[in-house]
Fold:
Amino acid sequence: MERPIAYDKLAREDRFVRMRARDVAQLKLEQGLPPFPDLASRESIKERAHGILVGELQAMEGAGRTVCDFPDAPWEFTLDMARQVWDESRHVEIYLRLLEHLDGYAGEFPETTILWRCACAEDAAARVAGVNRGLEGLACDVFNQLVHIARRMGDPILERAVEFVLADEITHVRMGSKWLTRLTEGDPERRRRAIGGREPRARGPGV
Structure:
């Protein structure tokens, strides 16, 4: 199996369009729109939900690659990553349904690949630092914000669905902290590289 896989080789239906996040932001600014979803309208919430959907999809793919890419890792690490694949697949299903609830659909907005590029680190410790502790930690803040907005809007479907996913994300952050510590035990230089983001990343056209 090819390792690592560049973002442009991820299997997708034709309805998905990939763009770099900064290019999406620039295009929106040129159209007089906020560069990022401000969550001030249902349309903006739909755009954010779409961004989360593709993030969950890439998280599922990334955790699956981690299972395959590190055959010499501790068995418990592989098991935790396999469990995370299952969690992320449920999250994809949830956000597909949420998009329908918000009158949206997969592929309505561009797909950015920040999460996948973090999931291509050559070191397992750098992967859990970048994805589990970093991006999923930030996702917890976003999900908390969405829960409060949904509550104010009186949308119990959005509120409960996001709360359900948030519970899993918290465990993924804890998992990342646990494995960052265990994988770098006795090797402070490896830990420093993992946390500092100095791991080489897979590069493809436009990355």
Remarks:
- Confidence is low (pLDDT under 50) at residues 197-207.
